[in-house]
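Bench notes, bay 3.
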Amino acid sequence: MKKIITLLAMLTLALGAFAYGETGMKFVGKSNFSVSGGLASVDVESDTIVYIGGRSSASFIIPSMSYNMGMMTMTIPSFQIDNTTFTGGYEGVTWPEQPFSLTASDGKAITGTSLSGTFTHGDGLYNLQLTITFIYGSMPMPITYTINSYYVKETAGKLDVSIGGAYNYSAENVTYATRLYKDGEAVKMDVAVPAYALSATMMGDLTVGSYTVKGLTYDAAQGGYFRDYSNDGLTMFFSNGTSMNKDYDLNKPGHTILVKIDGTTVISVVNNFQPGNMPFPITSTFPGTTSAITAPAASEGQRSAAYNLSGQQVSPAARGVVIINGKKYLNR
């Protein structure tokens, strides 16, 4: 009995305390759903399934599915399967094949003829595979949905931002989402860089948009998962409230991101980027360590440097608004 209780306790830890409550654990991966008889087969590159559970039963939130049927599009709304049972311990969990039934949000019955799946973990990889077969409403043909997904870890905290290595600011509460997964035999990571705002910077009030860097691989020299994403074709929304206010390419040399983790715990994220034609780079470090927005003392050369509202370096005597040492001046 003691051994069984211990296994259950360890399993609870393995699934992040089984995500008690309404939010659950998010798993993302490739999925497919097909209609029996070859009527439709749709591959989804990145689909999200939510797991909510306890010590002996679990719930799954299945994403919506949409496919073309001749002149019309069939859409099956997202639905939640409750009270699925599983077996296993810390070494892994298996959902033996089992039926299920529920009523979708549109009032149609969903009759599940089978549900089966596994949860495994190791080397920081938390993998959930699920297969369900069901009949939606009065459809004569069953639908089969499969997904091979990996846990998305969300970590919130303070972010430090350095502009040009001379001006430092912080955003108090941002959330990074990381996903460690297998691509063939290679272990890779995707990281969602969050949006945030910075007030009263040397360029004004900044809004920095979100984007996702995919395919980070472990770099022993860097001590974490690393990628140079200069050639990935990524863009980022950036605004200083005036002259810069659009999506900018992230294609300059030196766009790099480094994520250090311990298991699934994010230790740090260091991101170097330079949107558009901005003449100086930006480095964001997570989690941040500064206690407030600060502008450190600048050298004499830095004090004399002047920038326009687009972040371009100009003469201190240039007409219009110039920014010197973090302060705005109007030259007529």
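Next record in the batch:
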Amino acid sequence: MENYSIVIPSYTVGPDAYEKIPEFCRLYGRKAVVIGGEKAMAAAREKLLRALEGTDMEISAFVWYGKECTFEAAKRLAEEPAVLEADIIFAVGGGKAVDTCKLVSLELGIPYAAFPTIASNCAASSSVSIVYNEDGSFCRFVHFLKSAVHVFLDTDIMAKAPVQYLWAGIGDTCAKYYEVSISAKGEQLEHFRAMGVNLSRMCMETLVQHGEQALKDNEAGIASYDLEQAALAIIITTGWVSMLVARDHTMDYNGGVAHAFFYGLCSLPDFDETKKEHLHGVVVGFGILMLLLIDGREEECRKMMQFNQKVGLPVKLSDIGVTVEDVKKVAGIIVKDEDLEHYPYRVTEDMIVDAAKKLDVQQLPGQMF
């Protein structure tokens, strides 16, 4: 085998995580520009500024990233004077904001640090951007050689974030274990990929253990141990797994039915990802049930249905506002999605539709089949 190196992003977590900014970011320059969502920047602004008081670092501007992670948005940002003059980008917000910052970082050749303000996905610690078209439909993935120089997880900010994002993050993160373990089935893996596959189990097990309480604590605005563990599983563990199992992108074990199902549904004209029932992680959480049925693991599907019911994730098609006819329309798109390119068997349109039919109506665990 050829030589290889593994670099995964470091992180700081806690209510005072931003105090470590100078320690981890000063090496990359003195002038930072904040790019992110409007609400996210408002939530983080005071702590960001306070963290740099009395240091030789400064924030030159706070810049709104836009509404979608698109190539057009990244190009526009890369032409902003404050961005052009920056030594480092502070990517603040959710997945789309952070993914947009990655594109800007790539365009300008400057590093970025990630400041996730919601625990909804692993964008802050992964080295891939999910890029959309201007109309909101899925465009493609962009892989990077480098990830964030450091990830700062302020648990107080996350505890005050809308609970729906943590809710969606739980669904998205549980899928990582099932998708990675199936994609790598029967493979002879290098050390780093084997480590990623084994680590992926923590994505699901941590949330099964802490997810329900974390949601309650988020509702109450409490930065608890359970919330911290859930946030770390969603943002850090999943991101590390993503990077390990697809380090050189020649062999990507990240994908699977759960995510392909979501991206296929995005092509439906009335499928609005901004709706609560259509949030990425919520649909992916339902996609896990599809995945398990297609993989012939009915008992595991029942267990995940029980977990979904505990945390309020969908267990039937109508929970995500979709019908069997909708699934039939996009089944051809789903099976061609790149998330299924490296799979131990061929997923067919019939498999997708049959699983959707079984999950079309509410059926209690143990009575599904």
